Amino acid sequence: MYKNHKCIECGYCCYTAASFPISKADIKRSPEIEKYSIEGEVWYDPETKEMIICPFYSEESCLIYDKRPQVCRDYPRSREQALFTECKGVVSVETESSGNIKDFIKAK
Q1: Number of structural domains found in the chain
Q2: Domain span at residue 60?
Q3: pLDDT tens string 28-50
Q4: Do the Cβ atoms of 30 and 24 come closer than 8 Å?
């Protein structure tokens, strides 16, 4: 998470289909994620091999929050990444207001 902002845990990044790398440490911390990986990347359906939304996101919460992959813990790493991925769940620490990241970038 980049300086002066925090995640409001809206889940937008969880229910938006995307592929990203996982590490051996991620699999060790949460072995259940391995079945959703292909060549070190997640999230893929184990049967169809098609990209899917995170299978551990349920009813606006993460079922493996304490064991989630590092990339989930670090997202977004910058304003640019948040803008590029259209992050909707970032809050400005200074204003405590939430909304689309484009609004925060304009304000800075």
Answers
A1: 1
A2: 5-107
A3: 999 999 999 999 999 999 999 99
A4: no
Q: Model's pTM, two decimal places?
A: 0.71
In angstroms, the CA 82 to CA 65 distance is 20
Selection from 1, 39, 47, 41 nearest residue 17 by Cα: 41
Residue 5 to residue 101: CA distance in whole angstroms: 10
Question: Contact at 8 Å (CB) between 87 and 76?
Answer: yes
Q: In the prediction, which pLDDT does 14 show?
A: 85
Beta strand ranges found along 1-108 (DSSP E): 5-7, 20-21, 37-38, 41-42, 57-58, 61-62, 90-92, 98-99
Distance separating alpha carbons of residues 68 and 75, to the nearest angstrom: 12
